[in-house]
Amino acid sequence: MTRALIVVDVQGQMAVARDPGQPWANPGAESAIAALIARFRAKGLPVIHVPHNRM
Question: In this structure, which of 7, 9, 21, 48 has its CB flanked by the most CB atoms within 10 Å?
Answer without folding.
Answer: 7
